[in-house]
């Protein structure tokens, strides 16, 4: 009888153990199913996110690569120009200037400030905060900021060129006959730097450019040696480092018979040298260091630049199109190489776009080579400026200043 009880107990225990094992297997089965389900859900979510991101990127790409064929006029203002009137971009607007005065207008044509003066050959230069108008070949300079007139300056010798730095420092290159003078003025008119070079030693001054902080200069001089023209580039540092160098000249480079007609600080530490057959880019935090140089085999027709990019247009000797367009970033890497056939009178880089203007046509090319706008106007076009508004531009025709918005 006791044996039977033990048998029953054994059977009961074994049954309980089997139940536990089955229960554990069922729990493990459901746990595995749960994990698989979570993996499937996560995979679906990731897949849907990839699809959504791809669609979004495609839409953004399409929107950023639309070719516009027309426009609407968002605002229009009748031009009231004199015989000698020029326009230059300044901050988010445009300065209209002539021999007898200047006016700063916003993108809607509203006057922000105006000022009068008397000049013979006004030429402008500006940055985000300051704007100058200098009487090239004469002696006057007018300094402005976003609020209006700041200071009138008068120099002793005829002005070759003048520039203004970000903090309002004005640099002037002057022709003193056998001597060229470089002067830097504070926005209050105080002389900060007074330097001179002689034609006998340095040659004829052709161009110069000042850094954003007003502490560095680069100049281009041309001299004649043995009947041959020679170009020389000189770098000045008026900061602490330059105090250790004679005449603050920290470097100079001979460019031989390459005619260097344009030098430019693209930003505070990047200098671009434009020769008739050569492009040089220097990094200059204190002392110039060559980071890129390229010699061209065909004639350079036009140049353009911004604080980030450099555009070079050459005659195209081999391709089907008229010109070869090359765009470089400030490190010297070529970001665009394109054959173009535009007829144009003016070529500029604005933001990430290349703007070509002829008497009646405006062509806008993106840095990826995609054409954004190609249009022939009924009237002659004198100027084109981009605005802070997306796909909107200021078009100066013979009669009006029009703010246009591009449409398909």
């Amino acid at each position: 009888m006791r044996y039977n009880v033990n048998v029953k107990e054994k059977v009961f225990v074994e049954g309980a153990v089997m139940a536990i094992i089955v229960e554990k297997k069922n729990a493990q089965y459901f746990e595995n199913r749960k994990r698989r389900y979570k993996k499937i859900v996560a995979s679906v979510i990731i897949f849907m996110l990839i699809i959504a991101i791809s669609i979004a990127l495609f839409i953004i790409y399409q929107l950023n690569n639309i070719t516009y064929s027309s426009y609407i006029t968002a605002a229009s203002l009748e031009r009231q120009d004199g015989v000698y009137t020029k326009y230059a971009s300044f901050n988010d607007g445009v300065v209209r200037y002539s021999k007898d005065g200047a006016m700063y207008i916003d993108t809607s044509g509203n006057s922000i400030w105006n000022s009068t003066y008397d000049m013979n050959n006004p030429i402008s230069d500006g940055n985000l905060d300051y704007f100058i108008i200098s009487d090239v070949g004469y002696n006057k300079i007018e300094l402005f900021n976003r609020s209006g007139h700041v200071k009138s300056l008068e120099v002793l010798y005829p002005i070759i060129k003048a520039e203004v730095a970000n903090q309002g420092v004005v640099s002037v290159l002057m022709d003193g006959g056998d001597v060229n003078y470089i002067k830097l003025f504070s926005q209050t008119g105080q002389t900060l730097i007074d330097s001179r070079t002689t034609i006998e030693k340095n040659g004829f001054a052709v161009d110069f450019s000042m850094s954003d902080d007003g502490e560095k200069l680069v100049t281009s001089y041309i001299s004649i040696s043995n009947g041959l023209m020679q170009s020389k580039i000189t770098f000045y540092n008026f900061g602490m480092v330059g105090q250790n160098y004679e005449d603050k000249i920290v470097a100079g480079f001979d460019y031989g018979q390459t005619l260097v007609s344009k030098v430019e600080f693209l930003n505070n530490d990047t200098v671009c040298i434009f020769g008739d057959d050569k492009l040089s880019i220097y990094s200059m935090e204190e002392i110039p260091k060559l980071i890129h140089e390229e010699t061209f085999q065909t004639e350079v027709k036009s140049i353009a630049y911004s604080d980030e990019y450099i555009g070079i247009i050459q005659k195209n000797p081999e391709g089907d199109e008229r010109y070869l367009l090359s765009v470089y970033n400030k490190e010297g890497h070529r970001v665009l190489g394109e054959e173009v056939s535009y007829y144009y009178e003016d070529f500029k880089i604005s933001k990430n776009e290349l703007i070509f203007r002829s008497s009646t046509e405006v062509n806008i090319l993106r840095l990826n080579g995609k054409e954004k706008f190609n249009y022939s106007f009924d009237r002659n076009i004198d100027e084109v400026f981009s605005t802070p508004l997306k796909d909107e531009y200021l078009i100066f025709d013979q009669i009006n200043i029009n703010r246009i918005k591009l449409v398909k």
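Residues 1-64 form one domain. The two ends are 101 Å apart (CA to CA).
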